[in-house]
Design goal:
89 residues; mainly alpha
Length: 89
């Protein structure tokens, strides 16, 4: 059984996540910030994915958010641009 994932935040990181959770215009960034704050407060990735958000998420998705945040900070919470539908690559 793998060890539970944790997130230790500095005061500045917590403040930034709380600000994004409240005021970011992108709903997916607000959701991901909320998930990370819950993990930092001691909730498991699985618990956050199943009961901690408005929509049930796959625990692997929440773990990916955590991995990207730990690797690149707030930049890891944003989605990469996608190509328009109907256009060739």
């Amino acid at each position: 059984m793998p060890a539970p994932r944790t997130l230790v935040l500095t005061t500045d990181q917590r403040t930034e996540l709380e600000r994004c959770q409240r005021t970011d215009p992108r709903p997916y960034v607000r959701e991901r910030s909320s998930a990370l704050l819950q993990i930092a407060d001691g909730a498991s990735v699985r618990h956050v994915a199943v009961t901690g958000l408005l929509t049930i998420r796959d625990p692997h998705s929440v773990a990916d958010w955590l991995n990207r945040y730990q690797a690149t900070g707030m930049q890891g919470l944003t989605q990469a641009p996608r190509r328009a539908r109907g256009y060739p690559p």
